[in-house]
Write the structure tokens for this entry.
Amino acid sequence: MTGPCLMRDLALLGAACAVGTPSDQVPSAERGWTVHADRRARLAAELAEHWADDDPLLRRARGLGLSRLSYWLFALCAAVELYPEAAAAVSIVAEDARIQLVTPTVFGRLMVAVGQASFAEALAAGLEGAPLRRAGLIEAVEVMQGLPRTHTALRVTAAELSALLDPAGRLGE
């Protein structure tokens, strides 16, 4: 399974966790959701297994010197572009139907959900995004004024989206 496919599954699981959390509970950023523990554990294992894989996108990320968190951030941004259900799920995790792109907060919540990083680490990776921006993989989009910086939307650049959709498989270059 590819990184974007795994991140689609994580976004969908995050939405299920957000919806499945009783309305009188507010999950802490560091502890994350308490619902769907078995599903979260299974997906965490799949993410760890994928990190050891040799798929073209992961090979390219390693070639660019991207960290594990940068790779997952890119894969999540790609998932939102490639799978409409991932974009819808991101809006549920963001708790704002207007936001269908990845934000540092959404990325943090999802990484905490499967134990890939602390909220602070994932938030910093999302806010920084510098390696991905320098490589021309993602761009930041201010969704609307008045939101915290942690709600700045991140998306795959047009060139990278074309590469992701290229049937010739340019990702291996």
